[in-house]
Amino acid sequence: MKLCDLPRLDPGSDEVVVEVAGCGVCHTDIAFAYGDVPTRHALPLILGHEISGRVVAAGENAGAWLGRSVIVPAVIPCGVCPACQAGRATICRQQFMPGNDGNGGFATHVLVPTRGLCAVPEPLPSGLTLEMLSVVADAVSTPYEAIRRSQLGAEDVVVIVGAGGVGGFGVQIAAALGAAVVAIDRDRERLDLAARYGAGLVLDAASTELKGLKAAVRTFLKESGRKGIGLKIFEMSGTPAGQATAFGLLDYGAYLGVVGFASKPIEIRLSNLMALDATARGNWGCPPDQYPAALQMVLAGKIALAPFIELHALEEAPAILEAVAKHSVRRRAILKPGQRKEKQ
Amino acid sequence: MKLCDLPRLDPGSDEVVVEVAGCGVCHTDIAFAYGDVPTRHALPLILGHEISGRVVAAGENAGAWLGRSVIVPAVIPCGVCPACQAGRATICRQQFMPGNDGNGGFATHVLVPTRGLCAVPEPLPSGLTLEMLSVVADAVSTPYEAIRRSQLGAEDVVVIVGAGGVGGFGVQIAAALGAAVVAIDRDRERLDLAARYGAGLVLDAASTELKGLKAAVRTFLKESGRKGIGLKIFEMSGTPAGQATAFGLLDYGAYLGVVGFASKPIEIRLSNLMALDATARGNWGCPPDQYPAALQMVLAGKIALAPFIELHALEEAPAILEAVAKHSVRRRAILKPGQRKEKQ
Questions:
Q1: Which end of chain A has fewer surrounding CB within 10 Å, N or C?
Q2: Nearest CA to CA, how far is B247 from chain A (Å)?
């Protein structure tokens, strides 16, 4: 991983150059950076798919975007293939994912297609900046989509496993939808934050075995008085331990949303899905048409960003990626290009 | 496990006594018999939940059933709890499962509630007998429900892993719905049967690695010309190896129905569900309201039973259960009470 100067970007007719305000660091980047998962575009490649910024150059059909603040979706589907036409945009095989199919956002500038771009209305509410909104591109929109697919409502009890840089937003989204929320983590500070931002119960997996977690969730479920059928569980830790906990919490008719990414396999009894009549479902990001609604929850103050993020200079990328890989970063890290910006 | 004489059964007002024509042997019975999974009712208990027979005694509200031939659903929901009312009958916590919540069908007679009983229209089509229809109670209806939930249609490509006593029916159900069917097994005879009963491609997992299976399925998918989005895979082997294969075959947007039961855990990368935007779903049997449609497929000749079953005397139960446990029985075994019947 190294910092380098690249030629000025030249947008095609339906492309724009976005001056990066911020780009969040995701566990998928870690898997790419450490070789656990290959990028679809050959190396060398600029990673980073959680991008916000301002359009500073536009192709001939893209003039309307010039000067606009935008969030770049982590997954940009083609819009015309059978999967896109069938409403399954996230599995589009012609999708463009910055930092995977081409250069991404750990840079001062990034070249992206205009399709799927999410316009950011300005001025922003007080306390929000454009770089903070980068996390909407994945850390907010991906749990948003996972929760949307589960048809979560006010009668549901939801368990969020991992209340970090993704789960902290998951807790808030579920709470905003009126569900009764349990947050599970191994970090006391994260749990305290989750309790302040919507969790009705927080459980420390560092000090409580699965059996104890299950019992506590069941008691909470009973006392919640919610009438939803089946627990809704979301794995947002991106760790094998979190996945084992989430799968272990499955109960009759439960739904498990697999949001976090972990390369390492885990040992599970797959037949529990059968014995419990349960469902496990994953989502590869979020279709661009859901971004405005996710962004709106942030702008309306239903999802607080500030307590769940931390800003770092782009130059710190190697150290930050290492820290994220070690799960020693409590919040979602955002890389922010600094003084090298004027070189473009 | 032993054969014994029990007192005559006395039906309550909404109950009937069914003289057992046949009772299929399921891997769930094996898990119960060998202690891998505890029965919900305390031991000693008569196992067996795949029952057909004739009503020979009826409680005061059940007179209309007297003399009728019936299939007893493997899972009999209460019909009134919130789960039942919400259309999630298979997770009803007040459900009665013969051979789990009370005495089952490895017997001459069984006492069951009338709710959910599936009437068998008579006379039966030539080649079918009432004891053969016992497999509709689980081995046919459970894959039927799994396939129904997946919304399988004529534009889909489906992979059935395990073409034995359950998968053989799965292949036929999927083919009857017009899907292009791949059957995978480790047994040549089963594969030949699957090819004769609807599979467009059969693959031998004993001689082909996962990579080869994947490649063959992809080629078949391309050549099938089907436009369905995402492969639909059903694990019907009830073995850890079959489960690993089924999970390993997941591709973008795929759906995995977990039908077979295996006690042993397997090692999987749960995040594949996320990376592939895939779903894994299990079903605990089939709601009674789906039985008539499943039975109709059998009566209409869309599902052949004879090549996929084998009849044994009830007295052979210990040996048959052992053989099923060792996966050395190719077909669905049905236990049929014999000369002891008149003792009731």
A1: N
A2: 9
Q: Using the 8-state DSSP alphabet, how is residue B174 labeled?
A: H
Identify all chain A residues contacting B90, using CB atoms and an 8 Å cutoff: 277
Instruction: Identify the residue with better confidence: A159 or A31.
Output: A159
The pairing of strands A69-72 and A51-58 is antiparallel
Q: What is the ipTM of this complex?
A: 0.94
Residue B267 at interface with chain A, using a CB cutoff of 8 Å: yes
Please indicate if any CB of chain A lies within 8 Å of the CB of B222: no
Of A82, A270, A283, Cβ closest to residue B229:
A82
How confident is the model over B147-157, as pLDDT tens digits? 999 999 999 99
Question: Distance between CA B190 and CA A265 in Å, rounded?
Answer: 31
Of the candidates B40, B17, B37, the residue with the CA atom closest to the CA atom of residue B26: B37
- Cα dihedral B196, B199, B205, B206 in deg (nearest 10): 0
Token pair for residue B258?
Answer: 């977990």
Say how far apart CA B26 and CA A343 lie, in whole Å.
70
The encoded tokens of residue A106 equal 């750990």
| Rounded distance between C-alpha atoms, residue B222 and residue B218, angstroms | 6
What tokens does B235 get?
A: 């694990």
Please choose, from the candidates A279, A293, A328, A330, the residue with its C-alpha nearest in 3D space to the C-alpha of residue A140: A293
Provide the token pair at A98: 């910055």
Instruction: Provide the residue count of chain B.
Output: 344
Q: Measured between alpha carbons, how far apart are the two ends of chain B, in Å? A: 20
Rounded to a whole number of angstroms, the distance from the CA of A181 to the nearest CA of chain B is: 21
Provide, as residue numbers in chain A, all residues whose Cβ is less than 8 Å from the Cβ of B263.
Answer: 269, 271
Question: Which residues, 6+ apart, have CB-to-CB distance to B53 below 8 Å?
Answer: B18, B19, B20, B21, B22, B69, B70, B72, B105, B110, B130
Q: Which two tokens stand for residue A107?
A: 């840079």
Average pLDDT over residues B246-268: 96
